[in-house]
Amino acid sequence: MSRILPFIYILCFFVISVNAQKPTDANIYGHVVDKKTGEHLPFINVSLKGTTIGVVTDLTGHYLLTNLPTGKIIVVASSVGYATIEKEIEIKANQSEQVDFEILQDAVMLESVVVSANRNESNRKDAPSIVNVLTPALFQNTNSVSLGQGLNFQPGLRVETNCQSCGYQEVRINGLDGPYSQILIDSRAIFSSLAGVYGLEQIPANMVERVEVVRGGGSALFGSNAIAGTINIITREPGSNAVSIAHTTNLIGGRTPDMNTNFNASVVADNHRAGVMFFGASRQRNPFDHDGDGFTDISRIKSNNLGFKTYIRPDLYSKITLEYHNISEDRRGGNLVDLPPHEADVADEIKHHIHTGGVKYDWFSKNYKHILNVFTSAQHIDRKSYYGAQKDLAAYGTTGDLSFVAGVQYNYSMDHFLFLPADLTVGSEYSLNDLSDVNPGYNRVIEQTVHIQSVFLQNEWKNKKISLLAGTRLDRHNLMSKPVFSPRLNVRYSPNSLFNFRASYSTGFRAPQAFDQDLHISIAGGEPVLTVLDPELKPERSKSISLSTDLYYDVSDWLFNLLIEGFYTTLTDVFVLAETGLNQNGQIVMVRTNGEGAVVQGVNLEGRIIPFQALQIQLGATFQKSQYVQAQSWSESVAPQKRMFRTPDNYAFLVLNYNPLKKLKFSLSGTYTGSMLVRHYAGYIEEDREVETPEFLDLSLKVAYDMMLLAKTRVQLNFGIQNIFNSYQNDKDQGPDRDSAYIYGPALPRTVFMGAKFEM
């Protein structure tokens, strides 16, 4: 904290000093209301089209933009969940104009602006590929305090916990393991393999503006690992002078506290040329023992997050953005968690210190046809770990990880190119990941340095009815002998306002390097399970095809959106795990090697139904098959198996929001997980075996009530129950010989929660 305070003082002084610039006293002001209800709407973006100037409405739905450029301008009102409105006006020096907006809800979010479909801002309905958006409202309505909890409520996505002791999580897209997905922070690939081990639970929801999810191969856009899909975390920016503080207490199993506190505070200069937002979060979760054996089923967490995001607009057509956040986390699982880890029978203790930051420069031409982005981001992780059993003093390890990315991107918008208007995008990136993972007691050392030099090119021809995007990316990876070309082709056709048809083809690759599972050590039978790479490991490649249909129906108050998406992905030289027996220290060793191939295919369904203003329903389901071409063997005592592990053939989600009163909201949310196949290592059981898991229905309810204490002060009180039916795994191993990786189903048993939020 002491290291960050000087930056905070400098930023506040900087924002104040920007106000001293010469004013024009040309102002606009007004309010934004819901067209149907007349309700004033807070947090709506009001901006000048073609410039970087903008503001956010306050809690009363009003806004003020001062010292604007004179002449004709287009004022835009936009927000996730509302249709965008534009108004053209002319303003003069030393005058103020009132510009009010009436906007309609866009509950299916067709008008939302997204950046993950083509690396440029696009209307979601007109984007060349399907982009799902997770908003802060979804995180709040589902009581999701971290990124990992909220990701469950999207089609094709499933977040699962893979370790009883430490709570290691990963997100699966379209049935593929976590390392097949690329996680971005503000469109930058700095979320490394090490960050992926616990990162989903470390990123607090309050620092997130939105999360964009693109299913299917994305290596042509974002490079290595984007085979199953891309998750782009867009962090919050300052939009107005505002403060919010929230606290939620969860009682896991009705008895074990998990306390979460967060805050956001932003300051914006009167002339909107500069602004800064500070955000922070603290989490204190006690360990939870479900079956009373003295060993944790949910780990203890003590974490603190602190960061800021600031910008300066040197002129109307340029913007410099700076972002930094720090995460400090201490997690502990096993037994005797209050003692040093080497005095416990089983212990996972991991201490993280993570620093992440980035700088971006955006420039727009006056006619908005040329856009230039120059960016750089970095992340440094320092990890101290203990993965051990039987009071082993040799189980301590240290890990250092540095990720860096820098690049430039240029966009040119053409009124006509060959046969349609078109947008050309070209760019180049350089990325570095330097990893050192040392565990002397296990004689395990991973020293890995990855350099990737990339160039990308794409052109999108588009109008309201059709779009055709063709692009490619060239990655030169130092762990691969040849450069990798990753082409993509996307087609969208909208014959009318009711239908959208899309088709896509893309390729992807994974380099022969260590991934997040390799940096985590499970314990089975009181012995560690280590993962090593085959020295002859070859790159893994993919080809993906998807076809989809979007149906939109809007009559009076009734809104309906149905998405049907089919996907088919083939993997060659697929990465698989095979047991090689025990090493000289008596530890189980799994080797990552190449299999012949695999096929993942299925259908995603998503529906959004709004029968009337007060009721909104979102639901989705996935039906799929994930199989290896050739049966794979992972244990001498188990027959080879073609099915991919930990991948159910069907899973689904539901989010229902009902506002019977303006200030009262009921939110019902849940997930369904079908049966799947999991490994179960010997130790607590006599020999290795495969287990077909039962189905799970995890249903939750939240009730929230808003109160306006003063004109610009709002308080929300909320309470609810997660996993109402206590749908939770009941056959976990017990005692020191347990297999910590034998875990499946919902992450939490029945949990009661209550909270409060203060905004002004």
Give an overview of the whole structure.
With about 750 residues, the chain is mostly beta strands. The protein folds into two domains: about 5-105, Immunoglobulin-like, CATH 2.60.40; about 115-760, Beta Barrel (Maltoporin, Chain A), CATH 2.40.170. Helix content is about 5%, strand content about 60%. The protein contains five helices and 45 strands. The strands form eight sheets. The protein has a 22-stranded antiparallel β-barrel. The relative contact order is 0.12. The model is unreliable at about 5-20 (pLDDT under 50).
Summarize the structure in short.
Helices cover 5% and strands 58% of the residues. It has 760 residues and is mostly beta strands. The protein is globular, with a radius of gyration of 26 Å.
- Would you count the extended β strands for me? 45
CATH topology of the largest domain: Maltoporin, Chain A
Q: Quote the average pLDDT.
A: 86
Shape: globular
- Rounded radius of gyration (Å): 26 Å
Please name the CATH architecture of the largest domain: Beta Barrel
- Name the beta content range: over 45%
Work out the count of structural domains: 2
The major β-sheet equals: 22 strands, antiparallel, barrel
CA-CA gap between termini: 25 Å
Tell me, what is the CATH class of the largest domain? Mainly Beta
What is the percent of helical residues?
A: under 10%
Structural class by helix and strand composition: mainly beta
**Uncertain spans:** 4-21
Tally of separate helices = 5
Q: Say which CATH homologous superfamily of the largest domain is assigned.
A: TonB-dependent receptor, beta-barrel domain
